């Protein structure tokens, strides 16, 4: 017999079961938000696809193509630049251009590990170890200053057929219009290294060639590339965008 002064254990057990059921019902009630997905901290993101989409795609294009800046899904460019140069540019940016630094050590938001993931991911996903089929490409960067006068001659030989004799614009053999390479606004946005990269590696998917095929059977040599860059760069304006001279 249960004492009237002591709680009935059966009633206690029943109360506990009812309370648990009610709590479970509240946790799964219709309209109640479910648990939030776990979001990694920015410095813990380690997916190449995510890091590229968040930091690079706006300028270089989705999947490295169709962007305003140089296409990164270009095996020739990746083979010439190599992972070390790509990491350096990604981390530190390019002064005087729209390419900002992304490394935390340079004022950006990415860790050194994330910089390496992006750079190595480009090589892994878009590179080709046999891009040059045994040929030795020009160096990524110029080793000496170029000669603008010689560069104008080299431009006439290799580039004028599409870009125009004065580099002010033309058409590719397939009819695609090409803008001016000496427009002050364009030259204000691109570095000498950027010009060199375009000449050496071309622009995959847009009908342009790399250094081997501007003139069939006569690849451009390193000095010719350096000289063409010097000639194009000589057209830069010290005051781009300022059309009108200030009156005294």
Give an overview in words:
There is one protein chain. This protein has ten helices and two strands. With 248 residues, it is mostly helical. The termini are far apart. Among the domains are: 45-126, Cytochrome c-like domain (Cytochrome Bc1 Complex, Chain D, domain 2), CATH 1.10.760; 148-233, Cytochrome c-like domain (Cytochrome Bc1 Complex, Chain D, domain 2, Orthogonal Bundle). The radius of gyration is 30 Å and the shape is elongated. The longest helix is centred in the first third of the chain and has 19 residues, at 9-27. Strands 1-2 form a two-stranded antiparallel sheet. Helix content is 43%, strand content 2%. Helix 2 (48-55) packs across helix 5 (112-126) and helix 6 crosses helix 10 (222-233). A hairpin with a 5-residue loop joins strand 1 and strand 2.
């Amino acid at each position: 017999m249960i004492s009237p002064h002591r709680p009935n254990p059966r009633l206690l057990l029943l109360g506990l079961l009812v309370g648990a059921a009610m709590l479970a019902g509240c946790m799964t009630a219709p309209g109640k938000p479910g648990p939030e997905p776990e979001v990694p901290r920015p410095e813990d993101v380690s997916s190449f696809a995510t890091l590229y989409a968040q930091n690079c795609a706006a300028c270089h294009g989705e999947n490295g193509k169709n962007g305003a800046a140089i296409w990164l899904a270009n095996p020739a460019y990746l083979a010439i630049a190599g992972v070390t140069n790509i990491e350096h540019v990604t981390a530190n940016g390019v002064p005087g251009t729209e390419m900002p630094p992304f490394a935390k050590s340079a004022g950006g938001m990415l860790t050194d590990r994330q910089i390496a993931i992006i750079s190595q991911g480009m090589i892994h996903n878009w590179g080709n170890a046999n891009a040059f089929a045994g040929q030795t490409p020009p160096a990524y960067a110029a080793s000496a200053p170029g000669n603008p006068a010689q560069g104008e001659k080299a431009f006439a030989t290799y580039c004028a057929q599409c870009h125009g004799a004065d580099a002010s614009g033309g058409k590719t053999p397939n009819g695609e219009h090409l803008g001016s390479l000496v427009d002050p606004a364009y030259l204000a946005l691109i570095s000498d290294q950027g010009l060199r990269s375009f000449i050496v590696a071309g622009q995959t998917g847009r009908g342009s060639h790399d250094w081997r095929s501007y003139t069939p059977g006569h690849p451009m040599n390193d000095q010719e590339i350096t000289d063409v860059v010097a000639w194009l760069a000589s057209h830069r304006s010290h005051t781009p965008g300022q059309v009108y001279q200030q009156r005294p």
